Amino acid sequence: MTNDSRLTTDSHYYTIETPSVEEFKDRGSRFIAYAYPITGIPDFKEKLSALKKEHPKAVHHCFAYRLGLDGTNFRVSDDGEPSGTAGRPILGQIDSKQITNVLVVVVRYFGGTLLGVPGLITAYKTATAFALQTTAIVQKPVLTNYRLQFDYTQMNDVMKAVKQFDCVVLKQEMQLFCSLEIGVPKLWQDEVMNKLNDLKGVEVEKI
After folding, report:
1. In CATH, what number is assigned to the domain containing residue 21?
2. What's the gap between Cα 60 and its chain centre?
3. Which of 69, 108, 155, 189 sits a CA distance of 20 to 30 A from 204?
4. For residue 37, what are the β-bridge partners?
């Protein structure tokens, strides 16, 4: 990762908006690349498991993902291909777009002809590039999560503050006494906290 990478932006990060699928063929072999926006390891495991069930006869299910903002949370797998020919080229394409919270799985069906190390690297790299080119890259705010607890009569005031600063509602329990988990954009954190602290009886806890 380079120092000028967009990943290190303090208040925003870049990721893909929707899943995409593209295919690359070389000498009979098919390389089907699936790109997904993901939120964590469980998300990754679920997507990979689903693809293995969808393509049980494929010879390889190679992948790479990157999560988080500091550039340290990533994983690559060659899944039986020669070392360095699949997972790393896939990750290289993710990083070239300077995006995170992204998984790419490339499913390979062998066509009967060995492609050699350079051929494999090119195939996995190209399939991934195709998939990432066909989905929009979007900017998302870095969020800090808080739990709010308040009386039901304060619902309108609390929700007004939440909407005003584009907070994300993660979980809510609305009864006589309400519990709300929200993601607060880092950019507006001070303003949101000031607004909520002005509301008497609203308990705010960082989670």
Report:
1. 3.30.230.30
2. 23
3. 69
4. 102
